[in-house]
Amino acid sequence: MPTNLTIADVERIAALAQLELTREEKELFTRQLADILAYAEQVQAIDTSGVPATAHVHDAQRTERDDVPRPCLPIADALANAPDADRQAGLFRVPRVIGG
Amino acid sequence: MSPVDATARSIRAEIAAGRVSAVDVCRASLDRITAVNPSLNAFNLVDPERALARARDVDRRHAAGEPLGPLAGVPIAIKDNMNVRGMPTTASSRILDHFVPPYDATVVRRLEDAGAVIVGKTNCDEFAMGSSNENSAFGPVRNPWALDRIPGGSSGGSAAAVAARCVPLALGSDTGGSIRQPAAFCGVVGLKPTYGRVSRYGLLAFASSLDQIGPFARTVADAALVLAALSGADPCDATTSDEPVPDFAGAMTGDIKGVRVGVPRAFVTEGVDGDVRRAFDAALDALRGAGATLVDVELPHAKYAIPVYYLVCTAEASSNLARYDGVKYGYRSPAAKDEGLKALYSRTRDEGFGPEVKRRIMLGTYVLSAGYYDAFYLKALQVRTLLRRDYEQAYEHVDVIAMPTSPTPPFRLGEKTGDPLQMYLADVFTVSANLAGLPGISVPCGFSGEGLPIGFQLMGRMFDEATLLRVADAYERSTDWHTRNPA
């Protein structure tokens, strides 16, 4: 369980979170996350049998609307903040993913 | 006295009466910012040209006989995690370097429709993650009452800007106390509305089931004025509510005879500083003196609110912050240029995010990961239900619940930065309102022996900000704490 969180655990989590941590960060987080999780473990002693989860406080959601097309962000505006883009083609640019 | 020393209500009235112009008020606000911001670091960005143009527009409309909005000519500062079109949004993070939002947050549009004049963006903890404003890529904000103290967080810049009279109003966001706690620490009023009362469209998401935008002000009546302008359903945020928006100003009658104020005495015990306890007890006496009835209430699961909160908010944050990847906007690591997409993501995120944000993404990823989801995340959501039930049961007997906003007065810069868990524990009285979706307000209620501000908190029933404001305003009328100013 978390109180004996290892550097390998932290590396596994960092990979899932797409974070390339330095050696120092891994060591620091191993210690700090273990402390925080050990504290958070107190919730496991509470009897919650039959208790539903609250992911959200409003049970009834008014989420549906008519599917009517509306103006959206122009492509040029959407690309304006991109660190790298082919503005003429209207595309974000990233390093090659396939082949190469 | 500078025109910006007045309340928002009085500024608007003076402009309407033609005794002062919106441009004069705006200049006074900009001058005050220039004078005090070098020592406070409350603002990430000030935009005098844009502000003066808006103020001139208010004056021009007024001269043309057009009706004035409820916030006409009132300067306001916006926490730098909300979008103002054409003005950079940084969330006090490197990862949003050079990001200029192409749209306005709904709250920004509503404020400007009401005539408010946005002067700039305030410093905060990175992505609103923190209780001290020390997690900002642009350096900490300092408390106007004592420069060696933190202003609270995460909306520390907004609180400090209002306390230092740079602006009569500011917006903050509150995920676990990020409006109420800095309000208490800076000696101003801070209001977190009911979840769903105010649109989150254009607020950079931290924990979507907990985040809510609200005002800082120097009086309860000013906070009510802003709430009225912000409230109501928004087609751009499906979690906003259709609940009718009552007349908040009309609710503040000054009469709280027979109002039942719940006090969770068993919860408000350990770890509460002596000065905070004395100020809180005196506030309860004042409420009783104004005609309220004090009723003991039990909140048996409130002691679990901190672990539940840090399990839920980090899980949601780890998901929400996945979008910052160096592709669509913001910072991209130059080091990852030739190493493929995965390296681009992970280097960009390591270089772009600060330590607290990484810590929370890591914790949230862990509690959502296979093998730990049930034991941590699901369990936290179940205890969240138990906590909500505690409040529902308490509100069968009382109209509002009172407790200190923070267990201590503002602490020193650097005092808790080495121990994240100690920092988290400082949120003990504020996180419950977010987990249960309830409205809460922090009101100044005194000073510590060292002259540091202390606030107390009232929490109300869902969508009953009217009663909350009525009680808070009646309390404020019986005291003069809100009239004190930092040197």
CATH homology group of the domain at 3-254 and 440-483 in chain B? Amidase signature (AS) domain
**What is the overall pLDDT average of chain B?**
97
Order of helices and strands of chain A: HHHEE
| Rounded Rg of chain B | 21 Å
Shape of chain A: flat
Helical stretch tally of chain A: 3
Task: Work out the number of β strands of chain B.
Answer: 11
Q: Which blocks of ≥5 consecutive residues of chain B have pLDDT under 50?
A: none
* CATH class bucket of the domain at 3-254 and 440-483 in chain B: Alpha Beta
CATH architecture level-2 label of the domain at 3-254 and 440-483 in chain B: Alpha-Beta Complex
Helix proportion of residues of chain A, in percent? 25-40%
Subunit organisation of the chains:
heterodimer
Strand order of the largest sheet of chain B: 1-3-2-4-6-5-10-11-9-7-8
Element layout with pairings:
The complex is a heterodimer of chains A (100) and B (487).
Chain A (H helix, E strand, L loop, with lengths): L6 H10 L6 H18 L34 H5 L5 E2 L4 E2 L8
Antiparallel strand pairs in A: 1-2
Chain B lengths: L7 H9 L5 H19 L2 E4 L1 H16 L11 E5 L26 H8 L3 E6 L33 H8 L5 E6 L5 H7 L2 E4 L19 E6 L2 H11 L17 H4 L8 E4 L10 H16 L3 E4 L8 H16 L20 H12 L2 H14 L4 H22 L5 E5 L15 H6 L5 H6 L3 E8 L5 E8 L4 H13 L10
Parallel strand pairs in B: 2-3, 2-4, 7-8, 7-9
Antiparallel strand pairs in B: 1-3, 4-6, 5-6, 5-10, 9-11, 10-11
Helix pairs in contact in B: 2-3, 5-6, 10-12, 10-13
